[in-house]
Amino acid sequence: MRIAVVPLFLLASLVACFHDWDVGGEPDDGGADDASNGCGSSVSAGGACSCTGVCTTACGAGASVTCEKGSTCAPTCKGAACTFTCRAGASCSFVCEGAACTFACEAGSTCKLHCGGAACTRTCATGAVCTDV
To answer: What helix, strand, coil percent values describe the chain, rounded to 5?
Structure first.
């Protein structure tokens, strides 16, 4: 019986080494696990998170997402009044499907901004590259 247990353990270890353990049924993003990027695959209404890495986060109304230096972020606000901040050295593609979202892009950041509703506020610091899409 012990002979069968050792090969089974080795097989399980081998699978764990080479399998991309992405969570939430998200697409394969090259091995990055959204659970470890600070935001996960979603942020609840009124919640907040800081993305470190690659984030494709879906946000509830009033959520706040900060994209940290060196990160690539593409959050989508499914409601209204979300707040998005793109730090220097980050690449951000912010989508607000509702209204009254706030976009803030720091100097040295690259931002693509989409406001699907009305009354969005955009702050693009000198030295930031901001594009409305």
So the answer is: 15, 35, 50
Whole-prediction pTM value? 0.72
**How far, CA to CA in Å, does 65 sit from each of 2, 14, 97, 117?**
51, 36, 15, 19
Could you report the per-residue pLDDT of 75-101, keeping only the tens digit for each? 999 889 999 999 999 999 999 999 999
- Cα separation of 109 and 92, whole Å? 8
Question: Closest Cα partner for 92 from 109, 106, 107?
Answer: 109
- Residue 44 inside a domain? The answer is no
Domains in the chain, number: 1
